[in-house]
Each structure stands twice: as C-alpha cells, then as structure tokens.
Amino acid sequence: MIERKSRFGDRSALPDDPALRVLALRPRGGASDPTAPITYPGRLAAEDQQGLVARLQQSREEAAAAHNTLEKERIEREIERSEGLLLLRLDPESIGLTEYANRHELSLLATDEKLKSLKASIQTNGQDTPVRVRPAAPGAATAYELVEGHRRHAVIRELNRTTPGGFQILARLDAKAVEAKDLVLKMYRENAEREDLSAYETGTMFAQWLAAEICKTQRELAGLVGLKENTVSQYLTIAALPTEIISAFGDVRVISVRWATALAGAYKDHRSETLAQARKSAKQTPRPDAQAIYEALTTVGTSKRAKRRGTKVSDTVMVDDKVLFKIALKDGRFTLNPRQVEAEQLHRFYDDLKAFADKWLKAHGSKGG
Q: How far apart are CA 144 and CA 168, in angstroms?
C-alpha cells in the first residue's frame, strides 16, 4: 500500500505552535488517543460535554448540601415544637409587656445611647436574635406577651412606626413560659447574658419577685439566680432607698450595688440631713457625677456628730461578693483594712496609697501653714 503524503509536507518537523495544539495536529508517528476527537469541532463538542458533566456534578453537590441544611433546620424546628418553641414574624404592636418587665424606662427611651446604637445595628443589619414571647391570656389587649428582649422590642416598635410598610419582629413563641417562675428566670438570664441590668433594676426586680411570692425568701431567691444571699440583700437595699435619694442621681442606673450599705446607713443615722442633701443634689445644674453625689450623701452630718459623740463612720467595699477593703473614720483618724492584698504586695500598696494621699492633700488640703 502506498503511503499517502500530505501536500503540506512532513508535519513532524513543524515547530511547537499553540495553534497546532488547538487543532489537535500530531507529529507523524506520534502516539494517539483512539477515543479523542480528530477534528476541531469534535474536540469542542467533547470539551462542552465534559463541562456539562462537571456542572451537573456541582449542581448535585449543591442540591445535596441544600437538602442537608433544610433537613437540619426541619429537625431543629421539630425539637423547638416539642419544647414549646416556634419561630414567627409578628407585628411588634401585637406584643405586650408582662407585670414582670424589668427594664427601667430610661433604658427604653429613644435618646438612650445604647438603645440608639442597637437601633442603628438592626436598621442596617436586620434583627439577628429573635425576642421570646408567650401567648397572652384570653381577653388580653395583645395576642402575645414579651418574655425576653425588651430593648429589641422597643427598637423595632420605633422602626415599625418610621419604616414604610412597617418592620416586623422576629419572635420565638415559647408556650412553656406560662409559669411565673419560669418567665422571670428566663428574663433574668437573658439580661445577664446580654445587657446586664443595673443595680436598681435588679433590686426592683427581686423585690417584685418576693412581693408576688415567686420566691418566698431571699435565700430561695439567691439559690434561684445563683447569687449569695448577701448580694441579693444589697440589691434589695438599693431598690428600697427613698425616692429623694434615688432621684438625686438623676439616672437610677448609675447607682452601684456596693454603695447599698453606706447609703442605707446614712439615711438611717442622719435622715433629715441626708434627704436635704439629696434634694440639693437633684437641683444642681449641671448635676455632679454619681461618685460625687454618693460621697455627698454618705458624709453629710457625720463630722458634726463625730465631734460631739466620737461616732465611727465605716464602709465595706465589695466586688463580686468579695470584700476588697474596709475603711473607717473616727475622731479624725482613718483606718484601712485591705482584704485582697497579698502579704508580698503590702509595701507596694502602702507606697501607692501614700502617693495618692500626697497628691490629694496638695490639691485639696488646707492652704494654711
């Protein structure tokens, strides 16, 4: 058989050219793939077929992933339903407050800086975390009652009024939050995990629990929330302070729980002087900061009585149920008893305290010789 030669000559001598590779031209005598297409259109068709197979495989994988996600969500919803939970989108006006709402009205005002920041976040990014609601009692003004999420509810109510078409709230329906103890405990835990309540808000909440007999005693209440009984007592003391003393601070949320004993003691020992100072502080413009108001209320009347009877004024400073130090003033002399200072640090503590006293006395001490 006579070999037929190409009219283009010997192609084995052709240079390595990309165009030749695209056309699938092979040097003479080179090994060939019997399954590969021998024409350019055939090769394009084969490549299209391979791409189609790859795309189909990718689609199958994406569909499987979507199915797995939906199945996971379905299982989660089934668990939630079995636990009395259901995720809903609601008109925020369909949710009312219970008698156990524990946020002070100042925390829910549109002018509150933290609330403004939360509003900006929800307006920009949407509501990430649902509030928790329970079905309202028959005949109630609203269909649902809020279990937790008072700040989010306040923000979304405002957005609902100002957004064209409204702004629905994402809510988790908790049919099990019917018992008062379960309701208040969920409120307490949610606040502790997010934006903790102030000392006054916490004390008012605890007092309400006791009044409603959700807990019979302070000891039972302390066990329920996981605090020491002494700490619960301090919160209740803050909430029980007279209106004049509370009003002196302007914003009740700035009152520290560690001030409870001293404020209550000042009111008990020097009632008229303390109330007069509280009224004076409430009228001051600009109002002094919280620390200055506390000091004014707890020192008024003490100097006069100390001179007359040698009265001892003392205070115990605590943080997280631990006594940091005790300080006392009697007959013009201070005593300080640190409790949380290690023995090897006492000299450093002494030097720092001495430096502070030196600086303070130079700034505030007597100008006389």
A: 14
* Cα 14 from Cα 9, distance rounded (Å): 10
In this predicted structure, the answer to whether residue 241 has a pLDDT above a threshold of 70 is yes
pTM assigned to the model: 0.52
* Calpha distance 323→234 (Å, rounded): 13
- Given a contact cutoff of 8 angstroms between Cβ atoms, the answer to whether 273 and 293 are in contact is no
Q: Is 282 helix (H, G, I), strand (E, B) or coil?
A: helix
pLDDT of residue 306: 46
Q: What is the mean pLDDT of residues 326-332?
A: 72
Radius of gyration, CA atoms only, the chain: 37
**Counting every residue, how long is the chain?**
369
Q: Are strands 169-174 and 131-135 parallel, antiparallel or unpaired?
A: parallel
Burial letters 21-40, b for 16+ CB under 10 A, else e = eeeeebeeeeeeeeeeeeee
Q: Which residue has the tokens 């009152």?
A: 255
CB 236 within 8 A of CB 91: no
Give the span between the Cα atoms of 251 and 239, in whole angstroms: 13
Q: Higher-confidence residue: 48 or 185?
A: 185
Residue 353 banded pLDDT, cuts 50, 70, 90: confident
C-beta of residue 108 within 8 angstroms of C-beta of residue 156: no
Between CA 37 and CA 21 the distance in angstroms is: 13
- Residue 243 · residue 236 · CB < 8 Å: no
Please tell me the distance from the alpha carbon of residue 297 to that of residue 280, in angstroms, as a whole number.
10
